[in-house]
Design brief:
The complex is a heterodimer of chains A (485) and B (641). Chain A has a domain at 292-484. Chain A contains 19 helices and four strands. Chain A has helices at residues 11-30, 35-54, 72-98, 105-122, 126-144, 151-182, 187-200, 206-222, 231-238, 241-264, 271-294, 299-320, 323-348, 366-369, 371-385, 391-405, 409-435, 448-463, 469-484; strands at 61-63, 68-70, 351-352, 355-356. Chain B has 641 residues and is mainly α. Among the domains of chain B are: 280-540, no CATH class; 588-640, no CATH class. In chain B, the strands form two sheets. Chain B has a two-stranded antiparallel sheet. A two-stranded antiparallel ribbon of chain B has the order 3-4. The radius of gyration of chain B is 30 Å and the shape is globular. Chain B starts with a helix and ends with a helix. The chains are: A mainly alpha (485), B mainly alpha (641).
């Protein structure tokens, strides 16, 4: 005799699942012609889900036999995921119409992937973690290969799938090791176990550490941290640009959230062990992201390396392993979403005579042909390079601050040096836009949604400086909830 | 009223400097000249009120710096010393302003020139009205700046660039000493205010300061450092090399800055600080020694030069030497007297030389002049008056002041005083000689300029000759009129508290009681000099060549200015250049740029290239990287965790 589970903590997810099915039915019956309508509805569903998340109780609740957890950390990250996803859908609408990709499955798949991410954020067990991850990944595999008549897109989807399967394998293997050595897969039980374990002996078995390493590797793949990043440039370049934009934001936020929860909650007392992994991947990601981007000519590839670098910076906060560090990570991801969606919005505007272009040199003289667009890009690039007063500066400031307080001086110093190298390629884009002569101007017609997204994100990035407290307080409260449990 | 006298030139400089384009050449000339002339008139009133009626006063303008115990105000101090300097500066400056209107009539940058001149005047007035060391330093640096700007006025000329830099850099050496001196004063007295420091000076005599293990007399150290500043600004031997080169500037500049006013700032400074220097006898002896040596060395060089302005420049340096050895024997009032008379006749000589140069189409080499005295009679007469005053011929201004200095030196009866007296007599002989050498070579004999130049020779316009006339009046009568005030019976009343002399050091008093041959000696030396000049250049023109070749090495040594430039070049300039070049090429270029910016950039590019190459595009490479990554991490924990 089992009790019927409490559903309220999972209300947004349940709503999204039902909506996804409904939208799919609607699409099937109405046909591809109504893709635009479905897209708008998808955005609407996500907005409603975000409202549901925000109106939740705010206290920590678990349900479904301890598999699912809802707390303010989860709420914060879910809102970020939903925001990233909704913005991605918005910027994709015109693109898929123009590029003959108008299929109703496109927004629905994005909705399903988002649902998977929500599940990841709320996972409280290695099993629910895996289920959420796979729901997300399967939808993303399809999205990456969405232009199946296009060799590059198919290649991207296939690569992502094969490597994703490998990473899932690693993750499962790690989960089985953990189960084998600890006897449970539930986060709460694991946390209690390790806390007691640490007090008794101060020694943790190598099997558990190996398991943790494998799980971490699987998650590192999703956030494309070095050395599990190799798929990123190829997939970013090959996938349709709105999909790339989506890849760059929503799954990253969800996977980081999962990563943070996994390391802080169940494995919190093993911080000395996992910090070494995070330290290494953070450093390697920052360095590789900065250096490898310099040689790129394709702007989507460049953004791939840029996102690798950004994940490295965010992980610096996680490496600190403190409440301040987690706050830094959440804050970084929030700002990261805005900068990235805005930048991809501009990349989506890069068309010459109706044909998409992706080379950095195509931006030459943008300041003369599209002054406002160039200005927005300037703001994003300054922000990504971490130049004050753009928001990206504060993002970096908080993670490095946390690292310093955790006495990770070498990581902070190397990170700052890497960001100096990284500044080069961001500034080069500005140089190309402002100082090079235009070769062939980009097309002028930019849709209303796109203008809205670019203007909104760039204003946020520029003016964040004046109103930092709502976001900061939110992140602080969310981080506190994680450590309270 | 007093404030207007000081700040009108600044206002004029501001207007002409920033709005010169707006108000035009004529406007700039009227504004600046008018302002300085008004200042000159006010200074006459001030002179009567302050110096003659004894109404010395200080006007506080505002607090400048107030930090802890360090307090500095902007204030204008008016006493007899200041009043004398105001008369000198403003009179000469206004005459030079007027003269410049004519002299610079063919120049294209008249507003700039006039603005610089007025700016210089302002800084000079700040210097002489300062009531504390820091404000004096402000004026001191300001005149240095104005001098730099004016020497380099014709900035297209490389030689002017070099000369201005030389002037600035050599002065920096002296100013460094001056600044250290001010710091020493503050260290000793805890104040930089003149009155406070002067009041405490007697109590400080005999104190020592320990520097690197040596116990040094505190006041001597401070005074020597301050004098170092004076040496730079007043071109005393050792730091004099910039003055002859400064003649690259336009001639009115030479007259105003490098003869009458700025170069005498050092003399003024020592006289102003007489209450301190009186208690530092060693420093005074040193000053007297340097002054006498300068007077002699500069005179010998003056004998051999051919550039008309350089001859007068060395003459200036020599006369400054006189003033300094007067200071050195505590005859401050005599030094100030000579400063004043010298300002008139030296400005007259320079402006006269400018008139000659103007007439001869910018020719400055005396070997290409000659035979023009009938063509430019006014200038000729003016040069005569200036030279008579310079040579110390009776009843001209220089006679009174120079005699007074030599008598005071004799009357001091110290070793260094005697040294100064005899070198002074020799220098007086040489002064007369080179002055008439200049007159004869310039105006008499066969014309050595080419026909085209000769056809153009013309007397200068009235706007240039009127200032000459006014200065000539000063050169003739200044000595006669002012003798009693400056060094005669009325001197105690005239100077008031402005100059302080210990009773046993009162050489000016003693100078009135020297043997009868002493006052005659410089006059006779002057006459001999003039006679020799006539002999050498008028009656036996082959003689100079013979003497020069007979003296051979000595002549060349003197002609090349005692090799100071060569020596400094070897000692300072070449090593500095060598060091700079070395640090630039190997230090900055090879090491810092090579390893730093260039090296890092190259390394970054290299790393970027390699990092990008990792991305092969093959799935199995990627999978391999992931697996290796996991293996490495697990292995790390296995072995080190």
């Amino acid at each position: 005799m089992t009790e019927f589970p409490v559903l309220t903590p999972a209300l947004p997810e349940i709503f999204m699942a039902l909506s996804a099915i409904t939208l799919l039915m609607l699409g099937v019956f109405r046909g591809d012609g109504d893709t635009r309508l479905i897209s708008y509805l998808t955005v609407g569903v996500e907005v409603v889900a975000a409202v549901l998340v925000l109106t939740g109780s705010g206290v920590r609740e678990v349900t479904f036999s301890n598999l699912f957890v809802m707390d303010s950390f989860g709420a914060f990250m879910k809102v970020l995921v939903l925001m990233g996803s909704a913005l991605s859908v918005l910027v994709s609408i015109n693109y898929i119409e123009r590029e003959q990709m108008k299929r109703i499955e496109f927004p629905v798949l994005m909705l399903l992937a988002t649902l998977g991410m929500m599940m990841m954020v709320s996972a409280n067990d290695l099993i629910s973690l895996y289920v959420g991850l796979e729901l997300q990944s399967l939808a993303l595999y399809v999205l990456a290969a969405f232009r199946r008549d296009h060799a590059k897109s198919s290649e991207a989807g296939l690569k992502y799938f094969v490597l994703g399967a490998l990473s899932s394998g690693m993750l499962l293997y790690g989960a089985s090791l953990v189960y084998g050595f600890a006897g449970t897969t539930n986060f709460s039980v694991l946390a209690d176990l390790f806390a007691g374990h640490g007090q008794q002996a101060g020694h943790t078995s190598i099997g558990l550490i190996a398991g943790l390493t494998f799980v971490a590797a699987g998650l590192a793949f999703k956030i494309s941290a070095v050395p599990f990043h190799m798929w990123t440039p190829d997939v970013y370049e090959g996938a349709p640009t709105p999909v790339t934009a989506f890849f760059a934001v929503a799954p990253k936020v969800a996977a980081i959230a999962l990563f943070v929860r996994l390391l802080i909650e169940p494995f919190g007392s093993m911080v000395d062990q996992w910090r070494q992994i995070i330290y290494f991947t953070a450093l390697a990601s920052m360095v590789l992201g900065s250096f490898a981007a310099i040689g790129q000519t394709n702007i989507k590839r460049l953004m791939a390396y840029s996102s690798i670098g950004h994940i490295g910076f965010a992980l610096v906060g996680l490496a600190a392993g403190t409440e301040l560090g987690v706050r830094g990570v959440m804050f970084y991801m929030a700002i990261y979403i805005f900068m990235n969606i805005g930048t991809f919005g501009i990349i989506l505007c890069m068309r010459q005579n109706g044909r998409m272009v992706e080379e950095i040199t195509d931006l030459a003289g943008l300041s003369k042909t599209h002054p406002m667009l160039a200005l927005a890009m300037l703001i994003f690039m300054f922000s990504m390079a971490g130049i004050p007063p753009a928001a990206g500066f504060f993002a970096k400031l908080f993670v490095f601050q946390a690292a310093i307080q955790a006495h990770l001086y070498s990581l902070a110093i190397l990170g700052v040096l890497a960001s100096v190298v990284g500044a080069f390629y961001y500034l080069r884009i500005i140089k190309v836009m402002y100082f090079d002569e235009p070769v062939e101007p980009l097309d002028r017609n930019i849709s209303g949604e796109m203008t809205l997204v670019i203007a909104g994100t760039s204003l946020f990035t520029l003016l964040f400086f004046f109103f930092p407290s709502p976001l900061l307080n939110g992140a602080a409260a969310a981080a506190a909830s994680l450590f309270a449990g | 009223m007093e404030v207007a006298a000081i700040f009108l030139p600044l206002l004029a400089a501001f207007i002409a400097g920033f709005f010169g384009r707006l108000i035009g050449d004529r406007g700039s000339q009227i504004v600046t000249t008018g302002a300085v002339c008004v200042s000159a008139l006010i200074s006459v009133w001030l002179f009567v009120d302050v110096a003659l009626h004894g109404n010395a006063r200080t006007i506080e303008l505002m607090t400048w710096i107030d930090s802890g115990t360090f307090e500095v105000s902007w204030a204008l101090k008016f006493d007899s010393l200041t009043a004398v300097m105001l008369i000198v500066v403003n009179t000469v400056s206004s005459m030079v302003h007027v003269y410049s209107i004519g002299y610079m009539s063919h120049d294209h940058h008249k507003p700039r020139f006039m603005a610089y001149l007025s700016l210089f005047t302002f800084f000079m007035l700040m210097l002489v009205t300062a009531d504390n060391f820091v404000q004096m330093y402000f004026g001191w640096e300001g005149v240095g700046l104005a001098s730099y700007l004016l020497i380099n006025f014709w900035y297209e000329k490389p030689s002017a660039n070099a000369a201005s830099m030389k002037a600035f850099i050599v002065n920096r050496v002296g100013d460094f000493g001056f600044a250290l001196g001010i710091m020493a004063i503050f260290f000793l007295f805890g104040s930089v205010h003149f009155d406070t420091v002067f009041a405490a000076a007697a109590g400080m005599a005999g104190h020592t300061i320990n520097f690197l293990g040596f116990d040094l007399d505190a006041l001597t150290v401070a005074c020597l450092l301050l004098f170092m500043g004076a040496m730079g600004k007043s071109a005393q031997l050792g730091l004099h090399t910039w003055l002859p080169d400064a003649m690259e500037g336009p001639t009115p500049v030479s007259a105003l800055i490098h003869a009458a006013t700025m170069v005498t700032a050092g003399v003024f400074m020592v006289a102003r600080l007489s209450p301190i220097f009186e208690y530092a006898p060693a420093a005074l002896n040193f000053i007297a020694f340097v002054g006498a040596s300068t007077a002699f060395v500069a005179a010998t060089i003056g004998l051999t030069q051919f550039d008309i302005k350089r001859v007068i420049a060395y003459s200036t340096m020599s006369q400054l030497g006189y003033m300094f050895f007067a200071l050195g024997v505590s005859a401050y009032s005599a030094a100030m007297f000579h400063l004043m008379t010298h300002a008139f006749f030296k400005a007259l000589l320079f402006l006269g030389a400018g008139s000659v140069i103007h007439a001869l189409s910018d020719e400055q080499d005396m070997r290409k002049m000659g035979g023009v005295w009938r063509l430019i009679p006014v200038t000729y007469v003016m040069m005569w008056i200036g030279s008579l005053a310079l040579a110390g011929i009776p009843f001209f201004a220089g006679y009174y002041s120079k005699d007074m200095i030599l008598e005071a030196a004799y009357a001091s009866h110290s070793a260094v005083g005697t040294y100064a007296f005899w070198l002074g007599i020799l220098a007086a002989l040489m002064t007369a000689f080179y002055s008439w050498r200049l007159i004869i070579m310039t105006f008499h004999g066969r014309p050595r300029a080419n026909d085209r130049v000769m056809a153009h020779v013309h007397e200068s316009p009235l706007i240039m000759t009127i200032p000459l006339g006014i200065l000539a009046i000063g050169a003739v009568f200044a000595g006669m009129v002012a003798y009693n005030w400056f060094v005669g019976e009325g001197r105690g009343e005239f100077w008031g508290k402005a100059i302080f002399v210990l009773h046993e050091n009162d050489t000016v008093e003693a100078a009135h009681h020297v043997p009868g041959w002493v006052p005659l000696a410089p006059f006779i030396a002057g006459l001999i000099g003039i006679a020799l000049a006539y002999l050498f250049y008028m009656f036996m023109p082959q003689l100079p060549g013979i003497v020069a070749s007979k003296l051979g090495g000595v002549y060349r040594f003197v002609y090349r200015k005692w090799m100071f430039d060569e020596l400094y070049d070897k000692l300072f300039v070449q090593p500095a250049k060598f060091l700079g070049y070395g640090l630039w090429k190997s230090g900055d270029g090879a090491i810092i740029d090579g390893v730093g910016p260039d090296g890092i950039a190259a390394a970054t590019r290299d790393v970027a290239f390699r990092a990008a190459r990792l991305q092969s595009g093959y799935v199995y490479h990627y999978a391999f990287a992931m697996v290796i990554g996991v293996v490495l991490l697990v292995g790390w924990f296995y072995f080190f965790g």
